[in-house]
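Need the bound structure for 5-O-phosphono-beta-D-ribofuranosylamine, inputs here:
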Amino acid sequence: MTNIAVFASGTGSNFEMITKKLNTKNSTVKVRLLICDNPEAKVIKKAEKLQIKTYVFNPKNFKTKQEYEILILSELKNNHIKFIALAGYMRLIGNTLLNAYPKKIINIHPSLLPAFKGLDALGQAVKSKVRVTGITIHYIDEGMDTGEIIAQEPLKITPPYNRIQIEKRLHQLEHKVYPKVIKQLLEENNEKSFN
Ligand code: GRF
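Answer from helper R.:
Posting the output first, comments after.
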């Protein structure tokens, strides 16, 4: 069994889909913990409903990233977490977690990286008037949206660029692809490095 944690700061639609798709009877990969840095986030209620343990913290109560990441790390260890999927977690991961989980932290980003890194990837795509955007799943490193790419899916977009519509289609794509990629990655690696 591979226990995973999801980190999220907001709505949590990806958290919800990953959990629903992975936490099935015969699955060998299961979401066991939600880490959330925003006490107001909607994702917390979703975790309650799905009966997923949650660790919520407020970064404002800490002087440094290292301080709160040490606490996150102890939650991860106590829950035997072997792998981390970021899903709308609005902070850079620091060395405390990177060193403890080398090549075991991944993220989903709503653009075809390396295009449109950082905040409001969709806004950047619309502003650039591109005809194709998409989603990227990648490993986490010290940079912002710079880690090695694992999977990408394109999405055609056309002017006049209805943002709400495009956002909806991007989310649909994320919900379809992210759980699948996590499952594949962990099933492939199970023998090698996760036990
Ligand atoms: C997703 O679009 C993801 O690509 C980005 O943050 C968003 C999170 O959405 N990193 P949700 O909270 O999972 O609904």
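Comments: Residues 37 and 58 are 6 Å apart (CA to CA). Helices lie at 13-22, 43-49, 65-78, 95-100, 121-127, 163-193.
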